Amino acid sequence: MKMRIFADVFHLDIVIMRKRVYLVVVAFLTIFAVNAQQFDIQFDDRVYADGIASVKLLAKADQLSAPVATLGDTFNISFDDLNLEIRHLKFTFIHCTHDWKPSDMNPIEYIEGFMEEDINTYEHSFNTIEPYLHYYAKFPTENISYTKSGNYILFVYDDTPDNPVLTRRFMVVEPLPAKIDCDVHSSKDVTNRFTHQDVDFAVFPGGYPVRNPQQTIRATIQQNGRWDNAKIGLIYRSGSPTELNFNYIDGTNTFPGNAEFHTFDISTLRSNADHIVGISFVNHHTHAYVLQDEARPYDAYESRGNMNGRCYYRNRDLRNDFSEDYVFTHFTLKSSFPITDGDVYVFGELTDWKLQDDAKLHYNKEFGFWETELLLKQGVYNYQYVYVPHGSDVIDATFIEGSHYETSNIYNIYVYFHEEGTSYDRLIGFQSCSIVDHEH
Q1: Cα–Cα distance measured from residue 192 to residue 194, given in angstroms and rounded to the nearest whole number
Q2: Positive or negative CA dihedral for 88, 89, 95, 99?
Q3: Are strands 164-173 and 179-186 parallel, antiparallel or unpaired?
Q4: Beta bridge partners of 79
Q5: What CATH number belongs to 179-257+408-437?
Q6: How far separated are the first and last CA of the chain, in Å rounded?
Q7: Is 369 exposed, middle or buried (0-12, 13-18, 19+ CB in 10 A)?
Q8: Which residues have a Cβ under 8 Å from the Cβ of 172 and sit 6 or more positions away?
Q9: Which residue from 176, 175, 179, 143 is spatially nearest to 72, judged by alpha carbons?
Q10: CA-to-CA distance for 413 and 411, rounded, in angstroms?
């Protein structure tokens, strides 16, 4: 009898303890949900800590893949720390709306398991002049996963969220996605016919109960890896409940074609590879010099094999992991016309698709060209020159490079469904397309 009473009391203590733990967890998640909007971070692809470089968030082993995966599939995050700091890195997820604002959901509604996970896997670089730590992780893990489709921010921080290291956007698609048919073609506007591209598409919702598409369906078009010029929040124009058409005639779905990206190769430092005219070792650092570029706003279209602004890390001279060195890479641009009312930047994945201070070109009066240098990891790179007028933050990729309807840009189309009675935007469709799929 005494043993039974003891067992009952012990069981009651366990129940009370579990309830207390549950309440603590719920309280912590609620606090995190409130403070997620107050952290000193952007809901964008950003680096906040000094020394962090070469960030890759991939849905596949392919370095050129987009950060888009089906619910349940795995993502890979990797980056280098040139400051060689042993950090107590952790990460969590923040669910977002179709237009990249924090969702109304509490994290307990979309995160399963613990609230955060450690990044405790890192390696020292091998035989490099510029030493670094290479961090990497996969998610979801056994400890943390997400349960909803949609837009997410991967938030990496050092010990606490008050010490942000980086943020990255990634997208999770429903397991049974809607079908999307897309067509990229020269602009319907006769004035832009030879310089711009239209992206028309149709969405077939299939089994999704779309009863009020004007209110519940939104779409986004992203050109290459850029978010600054993405068309977000598009509303369907016409169609039936089984086929929603996003064919515009007012330019809503129109993008400048721009020009094919430039390319250079620093995957070997033993000789000059593609578009490299010199390699030197100065003051204990390696320098590579990219072939001088010419401003080409009025040149004819030139076809090039490219990676649509991406980069691919690789060291052809060594087969060891983490053997890619960092190289001070020099860019020069010659222009036959003055550039006086704005600034010119090197732009692409190599600058995180951002206007970075060290990527801004400065005029060299002695030699009559524009120049800058970037510290880059060994590999193959695409890039372009973009122009930003003084007093503006609008990026113009046509001022220096020109614009052509034939350019093989990759367009990613995302379709979101905010089902009536729910509190979040589901990502029910994803499709990539290019003008080469239809016209070449």
Answers
A1: 6
A2: positive
A3: unpaired
A4: 135
A5: 2.60.40.10
A6: 86
A7: middle
A8: 68, 69, 70, 71, 146, 148, 149, 150, 152, 427
A9: 175
A10: 6
C-alpha 54/C-alpha 132 separation (Å) is 11
Domain boundaries, the chain: 40-173, 179-257+408-437, 262-389
Instruction: Name the residue among 227, 225, 231 with its Cα closest to residue 198.
Output: 231
Question: Positive or negative CA dihedral for 367, 265, 61, 84?
Answer: negative
At 186 the three-state DSSP class reads: strand
Report the C-alpha gap between 147 and 372 in whole angstroms.
45
How far is the C-alpha of 86 from the C-alpha of 188, rounded, in Å? 55
Q: Which of 220, 263, 217 is nearest to 244 (CA)?
A: 217
DSSP H or E run through 144: strand 144-146
d(CA 414, CA 433): 12
Q: Which two tokens stand for residue 146?
A: 């997400």
Residue 396 DSSP one-character state: B
- pLDDT, position 306: 83
Structure-block tokens of residue 251: 């330019």
Tokens 């399963």 sit at which residue?
112
| Nearby residues of 425 by Cβ (< 8 Å), 6 or more positions away | 97, 98, 103, 150, 151, 218, 416, 417, 418
Query: In the structure encoding, which two tokens stand for residue 96, read together?
Result: 């977002």
Read off the tokens for 26.
Answer: 């719920």
Q: State pLDDT tens for residues 218-246.
A: 999 999 999 999 999 999 988 788 999 99
Which residue spans within 98-204 are E strands per DSSP? 111-113, 117-118, 122-124, 133-139, 144-146, 150-158, 164-173, 179-186, 196-204
Maximum pairwise Cα distance, the chain: 98
Tell me the CATH number of domain 262-389, given options 2.60.40, 3.40.50, 1.20.1070, 2.40.300: 2.60.40
262-389 matches 179-257+408-437 in CATH topology: yes
Q: What is the CATH number of domain 40-173?
A: 2.60.40.10
Residues of the chain with pLDDT under 70: 1-38, 437-440
State whether residue 231 is helix, strand or coil.
strand
Structure confidence at residue 99 (pLDDT): 98
Backbone angles phi, psi at 121, to 5 degrees: -105, 120
Query: What whole-number distance in Å separates Cα of residue 355 and Cα of residue 353?
Result: 7
* Displacement of CA 288 from its chain's centroid (Å): 26
Task: Give alpha helix (H) positions in 289-361.
Answer: none
